[in-house]
């Protein structure tokens, strides 16, 4: 059985979390969605996922969280060699320019989505980030052709002569 690639949503406002999870439903067949209300809870979820032999392909994280803020959580996660390849997206309406630059420079932030977002905007970011993850991690692209950027995945397969998939 192939390892699962998760999407982790870290958001303390229940309505916002529900909206994100709802907007991510179309991805859930291929990328199970896990949630956390704080950085501390997110760390436990991350450990459970990796302990189970799986990975996190994408983290959608709010900035303002109880305890440790989202930027610091993403920086800490990026510092862990086993987990730093996860794609990181800050989804917030409250991170200032300084915090955002800090996240880009220290956590290798992949994208920033301002609240409120549209489903189309979120879908576009998720498809791009997870397609990048699949390619960078050299995962079986055939597994994800139906949900991610099939053109980019096919190009990757042709360029790397991956006809064995």
Report what the structure shows.
By secondary structure, the chain is of the alpha/beta class. It has a domain of 115 residues: Rossmann fold. 44% of the residues lie in helices and 16% in strands. The chain is built from 6 helices and 5 strands; from the N terminus they run E-H-E-H-E-H-E-H-E-H-H. The protein has a 5-stranded parallel beta sheet with strand order 2-1-3-4-5, with helices on both faces. Strand 1, helix 1 and strand 2 form a beta-alpha-beta unit.
Name the CATH superfamily classification of the domain at 5-119.
Answer: Response regulator
Order of helices and strands: EHEHEHEHEHH
Mean residue pLDDT = 90
Which residue ranges are poorly predicted, with pLDDT under 50 across at least 5 consecutive positions? none
The CATH level-2 architecture of the domain at 5-119 is identified as 3-Layer(aba) Sandwich
Brief account:
It contains six helices and five strands; from the N terminus they run βαβαβαβαβαα. By secondary structure, the chain is an alpha/beta fold.
SSE order and pairing:
Blueprint: E1 5-10, H1 14-23, E2 33-36, H2 39-51, E3 55-61, H3 70-79, E4 87-92, H4 97-107, E5 111-114, H5 119-136, H6 150-159
Parallel strand pairs: 1-2, 1-3, 3-4, 4-5
């Amino acid at each position: 059985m192939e390892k699962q690639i998760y999407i982790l949503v870290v958001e303390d406002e229940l309505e916002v979390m529900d909206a994100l999870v709802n907007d991510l439903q179309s991805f859930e067949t291929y990328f199970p969605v896990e949630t956390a209300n704080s950085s501390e809870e997110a760390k436990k979820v991350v450990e459970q996922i990796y302990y189970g032999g799986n990975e996190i392909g994408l983290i959608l994280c709010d900035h303002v969280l109880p305890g440790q803020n989202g930027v610091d959580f993403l920086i800490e996660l990026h510092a862990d060699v086993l987990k730093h390849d996860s794609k990181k997206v800050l989804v917030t309406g409250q991170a200032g320019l300084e915090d955002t630059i800090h996240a880009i420079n220290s956590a290798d932030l992949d994208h920033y989505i301002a609240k409120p977002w549209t489903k189309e905007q979120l879908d576009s970011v998720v498809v791009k980030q997870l397609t990048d993850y699949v390619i960078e991690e050299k995962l079986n692209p055939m597994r994800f052709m139906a949900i991610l950027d099939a053109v980019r995945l096919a190009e990757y397969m042709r360029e790397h002569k991956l006809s064995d998939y």
